[in-house]
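BUG: 3D viewer hangs when loading the predicted structure for this chain

Environment: internal workstation, default settings.
Expected: structure renders.
Actual: progress bar stalls at 90%.

Input used:
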Amino acid sequence: MLKFLLIINKAGRLRLSHYFEHHQQEDRSAMERDIVRHCLASDDKQCTFWEYRDFVVVYRKYVNLYLVAAVTSDENELAIYELMHNLLETLNVYFDKVSELDIIYNIDRVHVIIQEMFNTGYVMETSKNKALTSLRLLDTVKR
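Structure tokens produced before the viewer hung:
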């Protein structure tokens, strides 16, 4: 089960956080700070998942973004690693090569995509087109 998703730029700024369970704000800030510090300090030859508190952190580095997921210890880390790639591909389909600015200026749409793909921390949809159906419908209504 996913506990939360983070998107961080390579300068260490948090661009998106999506929590699937409640955490106190002070606890969130401390966790995010520790996780960002660890992701930025690691090099390309190190493992991309590690245990932190009572969950496992899995991250994937792209050109200038880090996708970070915290999962329960019974999850398959490699499956989560691939799931994060699927999320990025879905964002690429919608934004036509997603960038940090797309995430900043369209954070509501990114949250909708995450909510379509995950429900209360469980994977609900892996198809890019099906995950984007409701958002595309919403885009046609708004115009």
